[in-house]
Amino acid sequence: MADKFDVIVIGAGPGGYVAAIRAAQLGLKTACVEKWVNREGKTVHGGTCLNVGCIPSKSLLETSHKYVEARDEYGDLGISIGDVSMDIEKMMARKDKVVSQLTGGISGLFKANGVTSLEGAGKLLKDKQVEVTGQDGESQTYQADNIIIATGSVPVEIPPAPMTEDLIVDSAGALEFQEVPKRLGVIGAGVIGLELGSVWRRLGSEVTMLEALDTFLPVVDEQISKETYKQLTKQGLDIKLGARVTGSEVRDSEVVVKYTDSEGEQEQTFDKLIVCVGRRPYTDSLLGDDTGVELDERGFIQVDDTCQTGAPGVYAIGDVVRGPMLAHKGSEEGVMVADIIHGEKAEMNYEAIPSVIYTAPEVAWVGRSEQQAQEDGFEVKTGVFPFSASGRAMANNATEGMVKVVTDASTDRVIGVHIIGQHAGELIAEAVIAMEFGSSAEDLALTCFAHPTLSEAVHEAALAVDGHAIHMANRKKKS
Ligand code: FAD
Ligand code: AMP
């Protein structure tokens, strides 16, 4: 038996690496097992988020957005820059550099905090032992008092559209195109599909999105999702709702996709097809016999509110357990579990986890939508403020969208905030803090916001809950 640790974390994505660093900071002897290897065969930390998720997608979204601004919008501002062109190779090289800086950064943080890095595939054995098998096939077994499973998720594959080398790809493949596909198909108009569709649309692809559901973005407040649909279709994303993909065929260098919609069987041909139909928890080859760790019917590791599995001292966090598949959710769970292992009473507020779609405009929300609040039996009161009435939004040439505050009318407590607009992903942070501190709409309304900022729209939406927005004709006068 090799070394014994206080904590062994399996998986170094944003759930696992944060848990490992926190545990080490608290003085616990910590190791983190990771099996991800890059093209050069070197172990890399950071998981889906840093390697093929949040970070590379945001790098491409930022570049493609700047390109569209320069091409289509600078003229309106009086800036002439002549012909604008894109260098895809350079865009990809920058993206790769950002990724390698950040993944290298995690390895550096492990060293700085004294986290032992174990390279290879981890397997949980009974009695809190972890077997680590390296790329050379050699195995070593380690003992720990506590184990944190953070093995994340992988893209779902569907039989009608099996992956190919380079024509039918998942989200990771869509971050690697070397040229702009003329006709791009995207199966699934969820968050990841919309972001990747936006990148390639901005760079010139004709993008068709095939979404099986009749409702666009059902997780988002209806008023906001309608506005999002309007804005994204205006940019040229052809979003077909109620379109279920039933088959695909690769012909030469094209993909023919078959789908059904309200009018029957349809067919469309693409140069590339991205499959973005969701992600599944990843536990392949993870669990040995008699570990006491159970999976639910959808394959998620079963945990309680504190991420404890059925086996005492074995925890699971991040995408591999219930809850939204978001990097920051996994990281917060990692901090909570490390604190619990250290003997503190820690908990997480699952009601205040923000979500962001990094399209342009961005869409961000926290808490309940108006419809969810009604379903949950709240007497709902809302306040909406459009960015078209915001001085800063006008100065920024970004007047699309709105802020919507949802409150429990009986207490005035803020139970949801929903934003579509420029920098919505940054603006939502103040709503998260307000909700974390149990703020009422009046608390927000009585808070001083800097002028001129986009955040004033949050202030105005809170004022609008009671019909008192300053820069808008209100629904009702003060009684
Ligand atoms: P992961 O990041 O999946 O990490 C799990 C790690 O465990 C991996 O490194 C894996 O190699 C390792 N592992 C698995 N099994 C073993 C084993 N047996 N032994 C050793 N190691 C193992 N989320 C956001 O919050 N914001 C975004 O903007 C965002 N954008 C995204 C864009 C895309 C294109 C994608 C695909 C995802 C995006 N996500 C985003 C989701 C986010 O990436 C995930 O929620 C997050 O990475 C989950 O973190 P995790 O630590 O649970 O798992
Ligand atoms: P998300 O879970 O947010 O990543 O979104 C994935 C989307 O893919 C969901 O909205 C699903 O309805 C959609 N989807 C799943 N299977 C199919 C299919 N065969 N054809 C079209 N859309 C699909």
Structure description:
The chain has helices spanning 16-25, 47-52, 54-73, 88-113, 171-174, 191-202, 222-234, 327-341, 370-375, 391-395, 424-436, 441-445, 456-465, and strands spanning 4-10, 30-34, 116-119, 121-125, 129-133, 139-149, 153-155, 168-169, 183-187, 206-211, 238-241, 244-251, 254-261, 264-270, 272-275, 279-281, 314-316, 355-357, 362-367, 380-386, 402-408, 413-421. By secondary structure, the chain is α/β, with parallel strands linked by helices. The protein has three domains: 4-154 and 280-348, FAD/NAD(P)-binding domain (3-Layer(bba) Sandwich), CATH 3.50.50; 168-277, 3-Layer(bba) Sandwich (FAD/NAD(P)-binding domain); 352-464, FAD/NAD-linked reductase, C-terminal dimerisation domain (Enolase-like, domain 1). The strands form five sheets. Strands 1, 2, 3, 4, 5, 6 and 17 form a seven-stranded mixed sheet that branches. Helix 3 (54-73) crosses helix 6. It is globular, with a radius of gyration of 24 Å. The mean pLDDT is 97. Flavin-adenine dinucleotide binds next to strand 2, helix 2, helix 3, strand 4 and helix 8.
